[in-house]
Write a structure and sequence with these properties.
Helix content: 10-25%
Largest sheet: 7 strands, mixed
Strand order of the largest sheet: 1-7-6-2-5-4-3
Oligomer: single chain
Shape: globular
Mean pLDDT: 92
Number of helices: 4
Length: about 140
Amino acid sequence: MKVIESFSPEDTAAVGRALAEKASPGDIITLTGDLGVGKTVFVKGFADGLGIREPITSPTFTIMCVYTGGRIPLYHFDVYRIEEADEMYAVGLDEYVNGDGVCLIEWAERIDDMLPKPLTRVTIEKNLSKDLDYRKITIEEVHD
């Protein structure tokens, strides 16, 4: 487990960028954290680290966005609005987690039982007593 302190959105994006530089096809990275904690900022940095130059948006209403302009495809899921985990099969989750790109899944705790292991769990937390922009980013490898 690795804990990183971020003091700005740029720091949070840099953590995503660094993780992307090590990413391989088939990797699954889950993002956990409250609303507004910086998950999408992290994803933007991650996309940049893959060499993706198109604008990155949160797929809150579409559930998934595909970005293919980098060294490997990025499958960005946001499962905040799903009501039943089985809805993820309708968007082809099983095809993407076994695909040729990397899956980044926001609010993944809602579908944790569906995700194959190993995966990387990224948790982003605020601590307002330290600073408004402060984030504690925990990166953990999960094998079972």
